[in-house]
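Researcher: Structure prediction, please.
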Amino acid sequence: MSLPENFCSAPFIQLQTSKDNRCGVCPYTPNRWQVQGTIADKWKSKELESLRKSFIENKQDPQCRRCWKEEEAGKKSLRLRLSEHKGSKNTKKIFEKYIETKKYLEYPRVLTLIPGNECNLACPSCTGGFSSKWNSLIANGKYEIQSMEPNWNLSDADYQDIVDNSEKLQKIELFGGEPFLNKRNRNLLIDKLIEKGTSKNITIYFNTNGTLFDEKYMNLIVDNFKFVEIRLSMDGLYEQFEYLRYGANFEKVCENAEKFKALPNTDFEIICTISIFNLFSIADMDKFFKERNWSVYYNIASFPNHLLLHNLPESTKDHVVVGPAFHDIKKYTTMKQCNQSDWEKFVQYTKELDNNRGLSFKNTFPTLYNLVKKHGYESTIKTKYCI
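Model: Predicted structure follows.
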């Protein structure tokens, strides 16, 4: 068979799993379905088989709209990046044979894990479902947009299912919460994989906020896993970083970034997510990262709606000036019209954050504020702020 133009390898190699039997294909489609049973049961589910069928038939499945939207904007989506495996010039032929023989049905090769909401930060882009810190702040503050959610972790049985089948895995991706804060990740997964001896054949991936660096723990991981990938979230510089990664210290995270980068047997990269907040700070961030020789991937915010780029008021979009390297981000701002209710929620949200945290959106993001101040901040008459 020949792989069609819209083919994606993810549902043939990768499974995302979390609490309450929630699962999806990849980090872009988290917790899309609820399928009872083990990882093996989820892997052979009718939901996943239906998605595989749509890709084989060259359909653009709407469940994967994030990738389609990125590609429409001229961005290299996760789907396209997955097709460019490092060190392989025959990826297409390998997958054609892999699918024809249905070898993929044996077990996922990549497991993406959202193991709990234990986190020490309360980022504006997050919720209590992924941050226990958010829940503690909501309990003691006055937030209308955010609401408390139960704190949670994967069960012992969930972790054991991974360990028991770890010889079939090539890669495990740990998201959060904050994966280095969650002790169950170490006690029930990392240590057990090392003890079993399967870690030496597994690449381990951490999506971290960069606030924690345990040298002894990292050396244990580097020495016992096949390879280590560190992806550190950094969406701003100095006071903007501390506004967007509330609870973190910028200088400390930069110090930890250098420590992660210096680890042997490790690939380090910054993940910088662009939203309304930092759209006008791209040039400064890019310069900062290049000066430190930090590899960076610019992600585009896909949630919550009130932070999405297209919800910037229409009259301010002409002021978005980015270089050719960020043409996709510029296009994202104009792919849809600003939604009035979403923009009003952004205004309300920034006011809530400032009031509860003693911060100043106006002083922290002066370029953005000066462009939008007549769109709900300094105006006294209710109007259509999105125009």
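Model: Residues 21 and 36 are 6 Å apart (CA to CA).
Researcher: Thanks, that helps.
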